[in-house]
Amino acid sequence: MLSDKECLKVVEIMGKSYPDAHSSLTADSDFHFLLAVIMSAQTTDKAVNLLSPKLFETYKRPNELAEADVADVMELIKTIGLYRNKAKYLVECAKKIVSDFEGVVPQTRKELMSLPGVGRKTADVVMAERFKIPAIAVDTHVTRVSKRLRMVAQDANVIEIEEALMKKLPKSIWIVAHFRMIYWGRYQCTARSPKCETCPLLEMCAEGKLRI
Ligand code: SF4
């Protein structure tokens, strides 16, 4: 298992390759960003970005989406996976923001997770990206990369991964660490064919050494 110091070094090395790692979802407000993150589950950010301008233009504020017909929302997002459920979540989420939070996206994890369609990962992404509240959202990339690098235990679940990374890394870098690990998983340490031969982390990576 990598030490705290080594984990920090890993994140620094990732930063040399991806100094500008950030969310690829495009949105012009906290509300629209929340919708984009909900839609991005099991779908690429690119697919969400393609449909979101029309959706956001149609429903600018929570009260407008809260009054929408779910079928109309489905029609606007039908190009992404699970669009039926997601359309229902979007409308329900908007209703709750209007009824419980005076039409403003809440900023705490507990409040965000009280919204339909919002799990821990979505809440963490919104907190980090929109409100700059330190958080490490654990998605498939963060899970794979942190396990391959032995930053966390091989049998750790998402909550254990999040807790382990938060313990090992200084709070001041949680947000950038999260985005760098996502980029690393997307472009360097991909699920099917990680580029171990050219990886700047190979010397520190138990999995990489086994693979080459
Ligand atoms: S050496 Fe291979 S397994 Fe390790 S982080 Fe790099 S790409 Fe991933």
Any idea what the radius of gyration is?
18 Å
Distance between the termini: 20 Å
Listing every helix as H and every strand as E from the N terminus to the C terminus, the arrangement reads: HHHHHHHHHHHH
Q: What about the largest sheet?
A: none
Cofactors and ligands present?
Answer: iron/sulfur cluster
Classified in CATH, the superfamily of the largest domain is Hypothetical protein, domain 2
Backbone structural class: mainly alpha
Unreliable residue stretches: none
Shape: elongated
CATH C-level category of the largest domain: Mainly Alpha
Q: Indicate the mean pLDDT.
A: 96
Secondary structure: number of strands:
0
CATH topology grouping of the largest domain: Endonuclease III, domain 1
CATH architecture of the largest domain: Orthogonal Bundle
Helix content: 55-70%
| Strand content range | under 5%
Q: Number of domains in the coordinates? A: 2
Number of helices: 12
InterPro entries: DNA_glycosylase, Endonuclease3_FeS-loop_motif, Endouclease-III_FeS-bd_BS, HhH-GPD_domain, HhH_base_excis_C, HhH_motif, Nth
Pfam families: EndIII_4Fe-2S, HHH, HhH-GPD
Protein name: Endonuclease III
Family: Belongs to the Nth/MutY family.
